[in-house]
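The material for today's practical consists of a large collection of protein records. Backbone structure tokens are a discrete shorthand for how the chain folds in space. An example says more than a description, so a record of this kind follows:
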Amino acid sequence: MKPTYEPSAREALGPNTSEERVRPDNLEPAGLKPRTAKRGSAGEHKIPKPQRSFFKDNGLTIVLAIFFLLSLMGMIASGLAHHNEELLRHRQASVSLMSFITGGNFLSALFENWESEFLQMGVYVVLTAWLFQRGSAESKDPDEEPDSDPSKRTRTRFFYEHSLGMALFLLFLICFVLHTVGSFRAAVDEAAQHGELSGSYWSYLLDAGLWFESFQNWQSEFLSTAVLVVLSIYLREKGSPESKPVDAANEETGG
């Protein structure tokens, strides 16, 4: 009679025993330590860096610069035509392009507008650092605590912290001086055409016509800024950082 072969309990259960099933595949047999993927291995997934586009990174500045140049060329062309029409009306010789753009009338009109823009932006940047408009996308939240760290207060850091406002006000002063110089030259030319004597530059700074030129631009800049601050409480422009999210409540402050 042949001897019978009796399998062990482990063999009887087969290869998929409960003991083997409870051990995760990522654990080593000794000590049950998890297996970690090695750096630089073929299975490691690296997120590719997005390709940067010059126009995408600087598109806003490029488009605004194009608008500026087109507007400036339009101002020069129309201004030259209008100026020469005025000269012909008074039976005087027309001027060349170079004479026009270096003359007092053009320089006064150009820097008169630049002056008001830089003043408006400088005042706006400084005021938004200290004042609030609840619900506006153009304002900080009045309920947020100010970030102040006395240990960081140094003279160099002070100038850096306020460098934007300082730069805008410096540009305003430069444009204001160039505006007054251009306007003074225009006044001298006009006085010469009428056979009159003109005063000095310093006396011209008190001329009402000069300040009328400035104030007529300043008031419009402050008005448009105030309108933007208030309208951004109730109106939206999807995708613009100057607007709150479309679904944001009117009381929500900040963009």
